[in-house]
Amino acid sequence: MKLKPIRAGLAAALLLLMQGCVVAPQEQPEDALKNLLVVAPQPAELRYQLEVAKLNEVLTEETLPADTMAELLYRRGALYDGLGMTALARIDFNHALEYQPRLADAYNYLGIHYTQAAQFDYAFEAYEATLELDPEHPYAYLNRGIAAYYDSRFDLAVDDLRHYFEQSPDDPYRVLWLYLAEVEQDVAQARNNLAQRRIAHGGDEWGWVLSDLMLGAISPVDFIDLHAARDLKDNETLAERMCEAYFYLGKYQQLAGQHKLATVYFRLALTTGVYMFLEHRYAGLELARSMAVVEHNDE
């Protein structure tokens, strides 16, 4: 197993964690809110809006072939989705399937939308259609695994997310989502698996810092102060970075039983307006879950 170039001190801490010798840093929950970085929402992508306007003109043509109509409707639906206009996106995806019933990508998008709406039976039907039409679809296993996770079908979630992880084990986000599913089955084993994958496949990139947070190798305060807003890539915005940061901080606090604090982070993730990120898509579901626990505890 090749050890990637992660910091020596961190690698040692992770090895100790795997042996049960490391615990998460002890902080008061309110300390984590002292260094909040609130960002402006991501502006609506101008080129998406311009392309929608052009597609609106093209789609008025009545002589377009059915396959062309399907592709154009699908493309406009994807643009609406990226702009956060989910109702219009869903209408276009359904219309695209009327013209071309074998459009796997449209089913995949519908599955995502049904998952966001907690309509899980419809989501699974959409993903089954996706995989029947395209067994090698690059995202269907991820998305079906996430649907299973939110539907508390953790065996299916682990199977699908492990399949997705095995296609590219160097992807830190695949590691994270597999961990989130595994931790619902066995906390200790899931943490051990995450630490092993971090050591085997990880590096110093931002995505792997999220695993360090989940493992307790860095504290939430240090996570924000030292990592969250630093070393942005040229094609990465601060809103995108903080969308991820606040979503996984919410999951960290949620798993620690700090649901009131988790609701703050999930709300912050939603305010970033990064509609195409998984973390933004599912922050609403996470917020509802933590709020339900808070309300139950307050009764």
Automatic annotation (TrEMBL):
Q: Where are the TPR repeats?
A: 104-137
In terms of Pfam families, this protein maps to: TPR_9
Give the UniProt entry's GO cellular component terms.
plasma membrane
* Source organism, top-level taxon: Bacteria
Main location (coarse class): membrane
- Keyword annotations of the record: Cell membrane, Lipoprotein, Membrane, Palmitate, Repeat, Signal, TPR repeat
What does UniProt give as the signal peptide span? Answer: 1-24
Gene3D superfamilies under this entry?
A: Tetratricopeptide repeat domain (1.25.40.10)
- Name where it's found: Cell membrane
**Subunit comment:** Homodimer.
What biological function has been recorded for the protein in this entry?
A: May be involved in cell division.
| PANTHER family for the chain | TETRATRICOPEPTIDE REPEAT PROTEIN 6, UDP-N-ACETYLGLUCOSAMINE--PEPTIDE N-ACETYLGLUCOSAMINYLTRANSFERASE SPINDLY-RELATED
Under which name does UniProt file this protein?
Answer: Lipoprotein NlpI
The organism is Pseudidiomarina salinarum
